[in-house]
Amino acid sequence: KPSLEHCFKLMLLLLALGGVTMHVPDADVLSSLGALRLDGHFSFHDTSAMARDFGNRCSLLPAAVLHPGSVSDIATTLRHVFSLGERSPLTVAARGHGHSLMGQSQAAGGIVVRMESLRGSDRLQVVHGGMSPFVDAPGGELWINVLHETLKHGLAPKSWTDYLHLTVGGTLSNAGVSGQAFRHGPQVSNVNQLEIVTGRGDVVTCSPEENSDLFYAALGGLGQFGIITKARIALEPAPKMVRWIRVLYSDFASFTEDQEMLIMAENTFDYIEGFVIINRTGILNNWRTSFKPQDPVQASRFQSDGRVLYCLELTKNFNSDEADIMEQEVTALLSRLRYIRSTLFHTDVTYLEFLDRVHTSEVKLRAQGLWEVPHPWLNLLIPRSSIQRFAKEVFGKILKDSNNGPILLYPVNKSKWDNRTSVVIPDEEIFYLVGFLSSAPSLSGHGSVAHAMNLNNQIVEFCEEADIGMKQYLAPYTTQQQWKAHFGARWETFERRKHTYDPLAILAPGQKIFPKAS
Ligand code: FAD
């Protein structure tokens, strides 16, 4: 095994060769980490795997990786880093599954806490609790494992992300949005309690009743206030099956009006999303989905012929003895919609298959080497009052060709979001999540990062110039000034909470909100 000092010198050499300048801790500081009494351990020589993420566009080498064996390891480490004082450059980033887009879970020259070390079915506890069942899950647990465990009890979380190989702490630090959010709110609206290790190294249990300021700070808090080590997640009875439906529109106004009508209706679908299809052939061969309609021949014949089309995606949950009622309800709901009548496609799958749909595509893309490519994604929250203007410019002018990846577009309602959390959303009752989920498999041309970024920049510039009232989700801002503008009137609260829970700005440096003083 190379010595600590050796690793440290090697790291400095590599950084110098790469022309990278950054604050790195000295050898004594690293030795002091190695001397901490832990249930798990630090590693200093295999840090490069922690300098990557799904975005694949940012690589910041940490000095050390903590593989915690317990929550107290995280507390011990943070207490130690805090004790080094404000002159120490050492920072700490929790890493969930590393599915950030621009280095948000990385720590240049700092410590990455590998949260997945603290996961496992023995750490997941499902409590039936009468009318309000819940699961206590470690912050580093993947949502897919939470689902597997809760399904054993006939239960499941209420609110999801489209992809489940993300961690509980990672999505709760952002918001966690999918097609169930219109009914249940985002994932941050479905948590009853958190256990958090603050930037001072204190282990705090918090909820709406107890230490509520920290509770709301951490939800959507971009990892700034503490490391979420446990979350109590609300559950509901899980259905066995799902009727999964797609219908197409050529008219954007009808598409969005129908979406809005559905999210406001009393008895409606269980999941409502939508996506935009630009100049595509074989439009159902979408990478994000394992959707196999019952009439594949008819479905594959349907071509967009250069048109922009809008696909409404819906599900209705059911158990096998409820199939007839489900059919009636679906028929009644569909009869109220204005889609192109020949474009109704549906399939019945298990609840698990539906929720884990993106993973099926991941497996296929991995096999072709197309998963670990750069992902210059852009996620926007657009107020309802601007969505037509936005669509006219973006889908009518800026995006001319089919892009490399899906474009999501669906409405959610603000009343389901708690404004005490740190999440920033537009100030309007209905707003749209619009996700441009591009992959950049080539170095030049249409499949390149440069091409996608050029389009992203045009879209953002348009939103700013036209005063659309847009907020970015998973925002990759790089200066405090940009973050202040993002938070607007809420910046003061965010900053106050930072001073309270992480006064030395040790946590989540990759978000680039509070530079560490040194
Ligand atoms: P990481 O990327 O590892 O971490 C994210 C941030 O949270 C970092 O700043 C990190 O330091 C911090 N963090 C991580 N764990 C903790 C913790 N325990 N406590 C405190 N801070 C922590 N998002 C949606 O809302 N809806 C979607 O439908 C959706 N679909 C996605 C599909 C794919 C294929 C991918 C790659 C991402 C998707 N996301 C979606 C985005 C996802 O929410 C973010 O990538 C998020 O960062 C979660 O990833 P992660 O668990 O790997 O966390």
Written account of the structure:
Residues 58-238 form the FAD-binding PCMH-type domain. It is an enzyme of class 1 (oxidoreductase). It comes from Panicum hallii var. hallii. Keywords: FAD, Flavoprotein, Oxidoreductase, Signal. It catalyses: N(6)-dimethylallyladenine + A + H2O = 3-methyl-2-butenal + adenine + AH2. By secondary structure, this protein is of the alpha+beta class. The longest helix has 17 residues, at 449-465. An 8-stranded antiparallel beta sheet has the order 14-11-13-12-16-17-15-18. Strands 5, 6, 7, 8, 9 and 10 form a 6-stranded antiparallel beta sheet that branches. Mean pLDDT is 91; it is low at 15-21. Helix 13 runs antiparallel to helix 14. Strand 8 (191-198) and strand 9 form a beta hairpin. It is globular and about 70 Å long. The protein contains 16 helices and 18 strands. The protein folds into 3 domains: 4-115 and 501-511, Uridine Diphospho-n-acetylenolpyruvylglucosamine Reductase, domain 2 (2-Layer Sandwich); 118-237, Uridine Diphospho-n-acetylenolpyruvylglucosamine Reductase, domain 3 (2-Layer Sandwich), CATH 3.30.465.10; 241-472, 3-Layer(aba) Sandwich (Vanillyl-alcohol Oxidase, Chain A, domain 3). Flavin-adenine dinucleotide binds at residues 54, 93-100, 104-105, 115, 139, 161-163, 166-167, 169-171, 173-178, 222-223, 227-228, 358, 474, 508, 510-511.
